[in-house]
């Protein structure tokens, strides 16, 4: 998107670590199941409109950091005191930067936790139902149906 676009900081839905409007407890549950230090996800903040929460697993604890936009719509993480504040135009840039160690988080980002529907779709694609031939019932046209609304376009 161009730099003047009002929606440029919206969550990029195509990123596996973007979970949208899940609750804090749901995020903690997903990270606990991941069970690896450095596992992370980003969700929309439940308390601050336009803000996000970066949730990181380290030593069986989930640490949550606020990602806040400034007046110029640049994003920054509220990290440890004394760590220089860095600003990013989009969430993807922010996540890439925090893969580096010593950025003020309890640990650096390592393992994105995928949305549950992404995992479900991967499992479904491995076990495909049998393909049935189209049937024509008393005057109904047989047409190729639209893809299911919950499937990703291929």
From TrEMBL:
UniProt xrefs under Gene3D superfamilies: SH2 domain
UniProt-listed Pfam families: SH2 (PF00017)
InterPro entries recorded: SH2, SH2_dom_sf
Keywords of the record: Immunity, SH2 domain
Any GO CC annotation of this UniProt entry: cytosol
PROSITE patterns, per the entry: SH2 (PS50001)
Region ranges (Disordered): 116-154
SMART domains: SH2 (SM00252)
A Gene Ontology BP annotation from the UniProt entry: negative regulation of bone resorption
Residue ranges of domain SH2 in the record: 17-113
Descriptive protein name: SH2 domain-containing protein
């Amino acid at each position: 998107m161009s730099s003047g676009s009002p929606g440029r900081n919206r969550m990029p839905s195509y990123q596996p670590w973007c979970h949208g409007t899940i609750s804090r407890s749901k995020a903690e549950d997903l990270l606990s199941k991941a069970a690896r230090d450095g596992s992370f996800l980003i969700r929309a903040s439940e308390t601050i409109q336009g803000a996000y929460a970066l949730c990181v697993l380290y030593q069986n604890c989930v640490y949550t950091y606020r990602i806040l936009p400034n007046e110029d719509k640049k994003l920054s993480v509220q990290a440890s005191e004394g760590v220089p504040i860095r600003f990013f135009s989009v969430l993807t840039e922010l996540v890439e930067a925090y893969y580096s160690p010593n950025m003020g988080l309890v640990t650096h980002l390592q393992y994105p936790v995928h949305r549950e529907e992404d995992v479900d779709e991967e499992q479904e694609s491995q076990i495909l139902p049998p393909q049935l031939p189209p049937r024509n019932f008393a005057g109904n046209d047989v047409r190729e149906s639209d893809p299911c609304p919950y499937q990703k376009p291929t």
